[in-house]
UniProtKB/TrEMBL annotation:
<protein>
    <submittedName>
        <fullName>NAD(P)-binding domain-containing protein</fullName>
    </submittedName>
</protein>
<keyword id="KW-0560">Oxidoreductase</keyword>
<dbReference type="InterPro" id="IPR051265">
    <property type="entry name" value="HIBADH-related_NP60_sf"/>
</dbReference>
<dbReference type="InterPro" id="IPR006115">
    <property type="entry name" value="6PGDH_NADP-bd"/>
</dbReference>
<dbReference type="InterPro" id="IPR048666">
    <property type="entry name" value="RedAm-like_C"/>
</dbReference>
<dbReference type="Pfam" id="PF03446">
    <property type="entry name" value="NAD_binding_2"/>
</dbReference>
<feature type="domain" description="6-phosphogluconate dehydrogenase NADP-binding">
    <location>
        <begin position="5"/>
        <end position="161"/>
    </location>
</feature>
<dbReference type="InterPro" id="IPR036291">
    <property type="entry name" value="NAD(P)-bd_dom_sf"/>
</dbReference>
<dbReference type="Pfam" id="PF21761">
    <property type="entry name" value="RedAm-like_C"/>
</dbReference>
<feature type="domain" description="NADPH-dependent reductive aminase-like C-terminal">
    <location>
        <begin position="163"/>
        <end position="289"/>
    </location>
</feature>
<dbReference type="InterPro" id="IPR015815">
    <property type="entry name" value="HIBADH-related"/>
</dbReference>
<dbReference type="InterPro" id="IPR013328">
    <property type="entry name" value="6PGD_dom2"/>
</dbReference>
Length: 294
């Protein structure tokens, strides 16, 4: 079923969303604060609306991809726009916080709109491809009823729960994993450069470690899911064993005057666990020290 869809925001990601919808045969109306950015989409068949109100009026589905939730609110909560959302599907694909998504979902419901909140786990070049991953939270009924629209945006769209904040929660969690790897890589590069190790060698050896690290990450998640935080026969290493090796990294970084900003937080977790007498627990038990309690 082909639908009339409005896309608000045509930056790199918003334009990719609009192109994917046009490619799937939908009738697409676009709006952007800087009209010149809509030109390439108009050439592909999109209708360019001169105002948000006219864009919203043209679409049964309204997809928003702007800078943040405050920007979305500034667009949709205008007196000329909000009443027109009644009966429409409003899809928020702007990055934000779980609480921001919940508040926006409550407001949209009060206007009579269905509201799936989405987190795009891909760069623009993946939008519209089978590998494109987008997580949606909120009304499962609205998600299932409009699934062809969502599938036009990426072949790996997933509904993760009725709570509108869950997609953004997963977005933050998964980006935290990514940044952990990227900042760890910066540490590795700095150590190698300081010690005269060729970065090509680091790259080659990193590839051999990928299966080992993947296995440890999967084990860490599974142990916390099942509550197996104590060391057992399947443990890779205890907290104390990890920390002993970690101290060697600190010595090298201090000696070579490498910035300790990233690793000091990790060292703090180790030391709090050791002070609590949890040194012989599995590394997974460090999760108990991630949330500060009064």
């Amino acid at each position: 079923m082909k639908l009339a869809i409005a896309v608000l925001g045509t930056g790199r990601m918003g334009s990719a969303l609009a192109r994917a919808l046009l490619g799937a045969g939908h009738e697409v109306t676009v709006w952007n604060r800087t009209p010149a950015k809509t030109g390439p989409l108009a050439a592909l068949g999109a209708v360019v609306a001169p105002s948000v109100a006219e864009a919203v009026a043209a679409g049964a589905v309204v997809i928003v991809n702007v800078s943040d939730y405050d920007a979305t609110a500034a667009l949709l909560r205008e007196a000329s726009v909000a009443p027109a959302l009644d009966g429409k599907l409003v899809v928020e694909l702007t990055s934000g916080t779980p609480q921001g998504a919940r508040e926006a979902g409550g407001w949209a419901a009060a206007q009579g709109a269905a509201y799936p909140d989405g987190a795009i786990m891909a760069t623009p070049d993946f939008i519209g491809t089978e590998a494109g991953t987008i997580l949606f939270a909120g009304s499962s009924q609205a998600f299932e009823a409009n699934k062809p629209v969502f599938l036009a945006l990426g072949g790996n769209v997933q509904h993760v729960g009725e709570d509108a904040g869950l997609a953004n929660a997963l977005d933050s969690a998964l980006l935290g994993l990514m940044w952990g790897a990227l900042f760890g890589t910066l540490n590795a590069i700095a150590v190698c450069q300081a010690e005269g190790v060729a970065l090509g060698m680091l790259g080659r050896l990193w590839q051999t470690l990928v299966p080992v690290i993947d296995g440890q990450v999967a084990d860490l998640i599974k142990r916390n899911e099942t509550g197996r935080l104590a060391s057992d026969e399947q443990s890779f290493a205890s907290i104390a064993t990890h920390h002993h090796a970690f101290e060697h990294l600190l010595v090298v970084m201090q000696a070579r005057k490498i910035d300790l900003g990233v690793v000091l937080g990790q060292d703090s977790l180790f030391r709090r666990a050791l002070a609590a007498g949890r040194g012989e627990d599995d590394f997974a038990a460090l999760s108990r020290f991630m949330i500060k309690r009064d």
